[in-house]
Q: What sequence folds into this?
C-alpha cells in the first residue's frame, strides 16, 4: 500500500494534516483589554534601580548597618558609599559621588568619633542638630542636621545657613565605644536653589543650563571681582597665575565659594598673552603635572549682537596614565573673559587699578565624577 495511512476513527479518511489557512487580509491583532474598558492594558512603569532606591529607616539601621559592620559588602547596595562625611563640605561630596536616586539623595557609611551635643564639624562649617527621633522601639535613632558654613566659633557673625540637610542613622548598642559606624543621608532642602539645580538624574552641567552663556553671568562675575579680599561679600580670590600648580594644590588653601564646591579666581593678564591664547586655543595649557585641554567654548553677546565676552571649558588631564585610569574624579576649569562691548561704563569701577595692557579674566575650578562631560 503506497497511499497515506487511514484514520481508524473515520474510515475512508487519511491522517494527512490539512494545510493552515492564512488569516484574511482584514484581520488585525488586537491587544486584550481589561474588563469593562475599551482601552488596551498598559504595562506599569517600572522605575530604574537608581530611581527606586528609597530605603526605610528601619532597613538602614536593622539591615544595612549590621551588614557593613560585619564587612558583608556583597549584601550591600551600591548606592551607599563609604566616605568621610564629616571631613568635607556637603557640596564636595555631592560633586564627587553619584546620587542614590533621582530626588536627589546621597547615602554614606561613616565611622565617626562619639561626641556629645548637637554639632558635627565638617569641612569649613558644621552640622547643627535640628530634631531627633527614636527607631526600633528606642534601640536606634535618627538625628536631623542642617549645615552652616564658616562656623569657626558659635555665634560667629560670618556664620551662614546653607540648603544642605543630613539625617544620621545609628543604634545605641555601641554607646560606650570610642568610634561608631553610622549611615548618613545627605540631600538639599526641597525647593531651594541647590535642589532645583540638582533636580536631574545626573550632576548639573552647563549643557543642562542654557543660561551659562548669558551676559548676566559675566556681569555677576565682574561685580564679584570688585570685592576681592572681603570674605563676607565675595568668595572670589586673587591669584597671580592659576596655571602655576595642580588644581588640587591651588584650591586647598581656599574655602569653596558655594554649596556646589566651586572656586573662583580673578587674574589680571596681559592683552598680548590673551591674544596668543585666542590664536592657539586648542593648545593644552600646562599646569603642574598635567595640562588643561579645551573641551568647548562659547561667545557671549548682548541683544544687539555685541561682543560681551566668552566662556571656555577645560578638562585637566594628568600626565601619568596610571593616575588617569584609577582616578574617580576629574578637575574642570571654566575661563570667563570680557569683550570690547562689555558695559564697563554702566557698572561700578574696580578699586584696584589695572594697566592699559591688562585685562580681567575669571576662572572657576570644580571637581566632577569621571565620565560626566560638561
A:
Amino acid at each position: 500500500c503506497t497511499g497515506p495511512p487511514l484514520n481508524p476513527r473515520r474510515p475512508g479518511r487519511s491522517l494527512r494534516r490539512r494545510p493552515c489557512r492564512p488569516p484574511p487580509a482584514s484581520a488585525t491583532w488586537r491587544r486584550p483589554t481589561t474588563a469593562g474598558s475599551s482601552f488596551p492594558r498598559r504595562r506599569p512603569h517600572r522605575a530604574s534601580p537608581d530611581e527606586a532606591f528609597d530605603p526605610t529607616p528601619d532597613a538602614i539601621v536593622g539591615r544595612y548597618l549590621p551588614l557593613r559592620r560585619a564587612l558583608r559588602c556583597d549584601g550591600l547596595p551600591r548606592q551607599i558609599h563609604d566616605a568621610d562625611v564629616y571631613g568635607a563640605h556637603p557640596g564636595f561630596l555631592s560633586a564627587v559621588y553619584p546620587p542614590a536616586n533621582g530626588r536627589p539623595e546621597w547615602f554614606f557609611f561613616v565611622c565617626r568619633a562619639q561626641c556629645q551635643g548637637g554639632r558635627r564639624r565638617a569641612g569649613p562649617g558644621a552640622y547643627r542638630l535640628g530634631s531627633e527621633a527614636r527607631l526600633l522601639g528606642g534601640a536606634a535613632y535618627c538625628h536631623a542636621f542642617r549645615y552652616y558654613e564658616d562656623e569657626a566659633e558659635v555665634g560667629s557673625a560670618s556664620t551662614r545657613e546653607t540648603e544642605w540637610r543630613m539625617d544620621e542613622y545609628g543604634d545605641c548598642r555601641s554607646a560606650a565605644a570610642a568610634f561608631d559606624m553610622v549611615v548618613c543621608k545627605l540631600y538639599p532642602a526641597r525647593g531651594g536653589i541647590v535642589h532645583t539645580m540638582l533636580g536631574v538624574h545626573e550632576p548639573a552641567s552647563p549643557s543642562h543650563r542654557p543660561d551659562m552663556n548669558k551676559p548676566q553671568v559675566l556681569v555677576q562675575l565682574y561685580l564679584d571681582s570688585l570685592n576681592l579680599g572681603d570674605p563676607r561679600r565675595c568668595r572670589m580670590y586673587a591669584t597671580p597665575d592659576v596655571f602655576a600648580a595642580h588644581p588640587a594644590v591651588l584650591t586647598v588653601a581656599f574655602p569653596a565659594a558655594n554649596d556646589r564646591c566651586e572656586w573662583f579666581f580673578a587674574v589680571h593678564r596681559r592683552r598680548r598673552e590673551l591674544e596668543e591664547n585666542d590664536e592657539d586655543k586648542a593648545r593644552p595649557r600646562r599646569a603642574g603635572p598635567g595640562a588643561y585641554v579645551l573641551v568647548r567654548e562659547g561667545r557671549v553677546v548682548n541683544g544687539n549682537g555685541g561682543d560681551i565676552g566668552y566662556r571656555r571649558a577645560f578638562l585637566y588631564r594628568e600626565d601619568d596614565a596610571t593616575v588617569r585610569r584609577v582616578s574617580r574624579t576629574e578637575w574642570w576649569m571654566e575661563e570667563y573673559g570680557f569683550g570690547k562691548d562689555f558695559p564697563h561704563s554702566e557698572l561700578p569701577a574696580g578699586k584696584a587699578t589695572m594697566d592699559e595692557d591688562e585685562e580681567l579674566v575669571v576662572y572657576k575650578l570644580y571637581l566632577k565624577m569621571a565620565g560626566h562631560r560638561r
Q: What stands out?
A: The mean pLDDT is 76. The longest strand covers residues 160-171. Residues 263 and 365 are 5 Å apart (CA to CA). The chain has two domains: 50-197, 206-369.
